[in-house]
Specification:
InterPro entries: cREC_REC (IPR046909). Keywords: Cell cycle, Cell division. Pfam families: cREC_REC. The structure is a single chain. This protein has about 110 residues and is α/β, with parallel strands linked by helices. The chain has four helices and five strands. The chain has one domain: Rossmann fold, CATH 3.40.50. Helix content is about 40%, strand content about 20%. The chain is globular, with a radius of gyration of 13 Å.
């Protein structure tokens, strides 16, 4: 199972595939079974925002098991959360914030990368 961290600037955490663009993130969502997705909102001047990724997740039914919103944009987090919360399927967990350090440590341990 793949975990995806979408961010144009930050380093991806251990145990996550790093998506530097929205299209890269959507491609991975379409082609892989995704356990955890962590989204940034501001993806640079030449890319779409995390809001567009949230819309595509809903429109295409690309739901992972868990979604975290690690963006520092308050308005971006609100937009993504509202889009995803309104349509999330039963059983999918949506967090209105970043992964905890304990969760990141557990994921790194699953991959043997602690």
């Amino acid at each position: 199972m793949t975990h995806i961290y979408m961010d144009d600037l930050r380093k991806g955490p251990l145990g996550f595939a790093l998506a530097r663009t929205t299209e890269e993130c959507l491609l991975m969502l379409r082609e892989c079974e995704v356990g955890i997705l962590s989204l940034d909102y501001d993806m640079g001047p030449d890319d779409y925002s995390g809001g567009e990724v949230a819309r595509r997740i809903v429109l295409e039914g690309l739901y992972p098991r868990e979604i975290y919103l690690h963006t520092s944009s308050v308005l971006g987090r609100k937009e993504m959360y509202e889009i995803l919360y309104a349509a999330k399927p039963e059983g999918m967990i949506l967090f209105n914030g970043p992964l905890s350090s304990d969760k990141l440590y557990d994921i790194a341990g699953e991959t043997g990368l602690k």
